[in-house]
Amino acid sequence: MDKSRKKELREQYKRTKPQMGIFIIRSKITNKCYIEGTQDLRGKINGTKARLGGGIHPNRELQKAWQDDGEANFTIEILENLEYDKDESKTDYKEDLALLQMIWEDKLINENVEFYKKRI
């Protein structure tokens, strides 16, 4: 591959926006859940799996369950993607993600889903 093609691909990669939204980690044993919103789903999911595997996830209850039950007894899935605004100037989606996460938490609570306790 020539240098100009590599440069073109690198620039294209830089312009690509990451997928953002809400993901869930669910225990197959207890059906307890951990839910989180992020502006980079793939990166956050990979980082979360690495922290859980390394024993350093901030949610202690989830971390203990992960260590006791093993990764194979959990599912990780994307609940909903958040689309980017047509307005290219908007770069901060924290409030949108927080609202979307609250909506999903309410939906899951109505389905009698229990959550891993959040660290205070």
Structural summary, described in words:
By secondary structure, this protein is an alpha+beta fold. The protein has a single domain, classed as GIY-YIG endonuclease, CATH 3.40.1440.10. 45% of the residues lie in helices and 19% in strands. It has four helices and three strands, in the order αββααβα. The protein has helices at residues 3-15, 41-54, 60-69, 94-110, and strands spanning 20-27, 33-38, 74-82. It has a three-stranded antiparallel β-sheet with strand order 2-1-3, sandwiched between helices. The relative contact order is 0.21.
Summed up:
With 120 residues, this protein is α+β, with helices and mostly antiparallel strands.
Give, in spatial order, the strands making up the sheet with the most strands.
Answer: 2-1-3
Helix percentage range: 40-55%
Q: Under the CATH scheme, which architecture would be assigned?
A: 3-Layer(aba) Sandwich
Radius of gyration: 17 Å
CATH topology: GIY-YIG endonuclease
Helix/sheet category: alpha+beta
Contiguous uncertain segments of 5+ residues:
none
Gap between N and C termini:
51 Å
